[in-house]
Amino acid sequence: MNESSGVPRSSLDFQGLGELRARAQGKEEAATRQTAQQFEAMFIQMMLKSMRDAVPKSELLKSKAMDTFEAMYDREIAVALSKKGGLGLADMMMKHLSQPNTATKDYLQDRQSMQKSMQLEKVQKSYDLMKETADKGIPLKINKEKSLPVHELRDRSFSIRKLDGNQKNDTSKK
């Protein structure tokens, strides 16, 4: 098939993909780069497939064999594009993956404080009672001028009439 270099030459090179997997477990930077390129190739292949599906096909060229050939061709084009730089997705992944991701004590404390500051519900706090009114009740001021005693309301009667659109509401005291 190909020499044993650990680099898959094609998307159908299963031996090269197996060697790449073994090298990636050893956390080699070259293996990480190859894995990022394979991911970028898969992304490009899916993009090409979506682009082909968006274009109407002629009935003369429509067949299962043609669909298989187009899928294989898209896969090989995607691998070739990703090896030559592609969309830059592999480079961005390498940049992100090469950063140290150790969880330091400061980082974890900052993360805990961030979680506390982004609460979805506001926590209701209870209010302290004033010491001078703790034994007494809170006095309610009653405005006696506007309120009527219940026995006066019971003795009054109100008339209710059906209103037309032109009449005003008339309540009379008896």
Account of the protein in words:
The chain is mostly helical and 174 residues long. The chain has a domain at 14-95. The protein is built from 6 helices and no strands. The longest helix is centred in the first third of the chain and has 26 residues, at 29-54. It is elongated, with a radius of gyration of 39 Å.
Ordered list of secondary-structure elements with their pairings:
Elements lengths: L13 H12 L3 H26 L9 H20 L5 H10 L6 H13 L32 H6 L19
Helix pairs in contact: 1-2, 2-3, 2-4
Concise overview:
The chain has 174 residues and is mainly α. It is 50% helix and 0% strand.
Helix/sheet category? mainly alpha
Give the integer mean of the pLDDT values.
73
Number of helices: 6
Sheet with most strands: none
State the order of secondary-structure elements, H for helix, E for strand: HHHHHH
Number of strands: 0
What key phrases describe this protein's structure?
174 residues; mainly alpha; elongated; disordered N terminus
